[in-house]
Amino acid sequence: MNFKIDKKDLYQSLNVIVNACASSNTMPILKGLKLEANKEKGIHLMGTNLEIGIENWIPAEIKKEGEIVLPAVQLKNIVRELSDEKIEFTADLEKYRAEVNCENSDFFINGFNPEEYPELPDVSIPIELEMPAGKLKRIIDEVKFSISSDQSQPVLTGILMVIENEKTRMVATNKYRLAYTKVDNENNIEEKLDVIIPGITVKELSNLLPEEGTVKIKVNDNYISFNFNDIMVVSRLIEGDFPNYEQVIPDKRKSRIIVKKDYLQSAVKRASLIARNDSNIVNLKSMDNKLVIESESSDIGSAHEEVPIQLEGENHKISIDASYLLDVLNVLEGEIYLDLIGALNPFVIRKKEKENEDYIYLIMPIRPGNQENE
Amino acid sequence: MNFKIDKKDLYQSLNVIVNACASSNTMPILKGLKLEANKEKGIHLMGTNLEIGIENWIPAEIKKEGEIVLPAVQLKNIVRELSDEKIEFTADLEKYRAEVNCENSDFFINGFNPEEYPELPDVSIPIELEMPAGKLKRIIDEVKFSISSDQSQPVLTGILMVIENEKTRMVATNKYRLAYTKVDNENNIEEKLDVIIPGITVKELSNLLPEEGTVKIKVNDNYISFNFNDIMVVSRLIEGDFPNYEQVIPDKRKSRIIVKKDYLQSAVKRASLIARNDSNIVNLKSMDNKLVIESESSDIGSAHEEVPIQLEGENHKISIDASYLLDVLNVLEGEIYLDLIGALNPFVIRKKEKENEDYIYLIMPIRPGNQENE
Known about the structure:
With 374 residues, chain A is an alpha+beta fold. In chain A, 17% of the residues lie in helices and 46% in strands.
């Protein structure tokens, strides 16, 4: 195995692939990535921790074909520090040992037998569809912060993605809050897709997806793959039934508050500086043309913030976890709606830009009795 | 107590003072800082954890004088997030409770009795001298990385500073390496100053010292203070005798290597990517017009680097801790000298820019027998 490759190309690719390699002390070979030189196709890099896999093709001047598994993090770090633009890569395929040569630097890196490295699953059937990469990234970002970290309910540790006819929906919830988003598909899609994608995969996708271009999505019963640029991300799907989210979303409201996201965000951020020393609760109270935001910590003191609003309907009070509100304010812009029914009913945040139901974020309130300071 | 103050001025000052406040769970009042409003002098902020203290004066429109102790980190975070340029500050000096008001934000912060807060020691006698701030910062940075973290030998956890006649010297060592620097004083200084400044203080000074202006230094038996801009840093001194560093510095050499710092740094950085998986040892070997740098890790593999050099004297081999060499290369520029006597003698790095003894960095070699891979 022998090839010459651009340092930049190789480093960029390693930087992507390394995210799919195991980082903990499981089988040492899973901390590696598989590197294959193919005269027709170029260099193929692939990493997987058995949950998620990423592969990438890059061009190179290949003199001799072959494949080897090398420790991913170490290879990435070495390539990053090399001085020159061109790297010569040679591997002894019997000893599983690679030589990386660049100007006056020579590295010998111990590898593993590529035949012992797992293959990525083939996800070529039964469903195949396309979506603009920027749109997929946006809807992931709009819901991913609501994924649960509680491993005892695996279905909540992922995002539900439903693609059906003209619409794609994404939902994530940890039972105390829920984020829901819906976008139009470019084309009417005949197959119905209804899968739960692991949190680790959606976070990786959010980092890797470009703003431009198209993503090809393929799904079978157990796996999903995303293909964009020369990168393919393959992930295991989470088995099980996602909770019926539709029944949680209120179909009515008693009041609607219209508020500038920037004002609300700054005020809640400040109030949470006090709240986070205690239970992280902020109390919201509409008073006609202003929203009062208050927090209290027995140690530190208290905060009182006022934000100008427009109110439709009656005045309300509600207590919520400040971080749940800040998470959604990070992904919204301009004016937003806060919809209220009562202090014990879900608190709903929507985008004002579209009156329809495209984005819904719901926070379960904290009962007044559960607070120390009420 | 009541005053109006610029948000920016107050935040900058809090950001400095907070470094002197206790961060761990000792007495809660030590996590606070003392804030005093004085109509003639302005606002005085002071924090101390009893090891180090920092104070600062800032201007404000003071309506009512007074003093209070407030939690430092919380106050800093709140001021950072405030929206407006002008902050109104009011304190109830009987309840030790402050109100911070800014536009639509109102914070009530619980404080402490300022009479229970420690005073900074008075360091007005017996020695007082001046030094350019930029020069003090430079010599601290040239030696501070050699300070020991081993608390069982307290004198090595600080920098020895000796000011005598026309010279100021600084030395730090952890027994396995030593950094020594010497600069000319602006004026001949009559008093001899010979103190050990704690590592925590020199690191704080390095962050705070400006490039321009003058530092006033005052010392007594137990404390040292540094005065620059409107900031004063006061620190306890470390008691005890610093080891006799002069006897460790070799007065001869068998070979001198002249090498470009940048080349050596890049090569050692790369070799250390392998070395750090093992004992962090790199082997240096001069071969007439090149320096070969090698490292090996039984797991990962090996690195071989070559750097062009000029050699005066015979060829040598030596094994050292890669991080010790990288630390000094971070603070040197241009061409440097590597002076060698033998594989078991100290390895000495000097600046080429001045042939004199102004900067000496010494690394104790690792005996070949202590290496796995030799």
